[in-house]
Amino acid sequence: MKTISYLMLFALYLSAMAYQALAQCDFEVEIEGDLMLCPESEGVLFTGTFDSYAWYKRPFSGGDEAEPIPGATDSFLVVNYYEDVPAWFSVEVTLDTCVVRSEEYLLDGYAFLPPFVETLGEFAVGPEGETIICNNDTVQFIFSMDTSIQWYKDFEPIPGATGKELIVSEGGSYFAEGAPEECPDLILQLGLTLEVDKRDVDAVIPQIELEGYELLQLTNPEEFVFWQWFCEENNMMNWIANQDTSLMGHDYFEMCNFGPFLIRSTDRNGCVAWSEDYFTMINSVEEKGLEIGSVYPNPATHFIYLELPEVIEKVEYRIIDLNGKQIRSGHLIGAGKHRLDLSGLSSRQYLIELKEGNKLAVVRVLRLE
Question: Which residues are CB-neighbours of 11 under 8 A, at least 6 positions away?
Answer without folding.
Answer: none
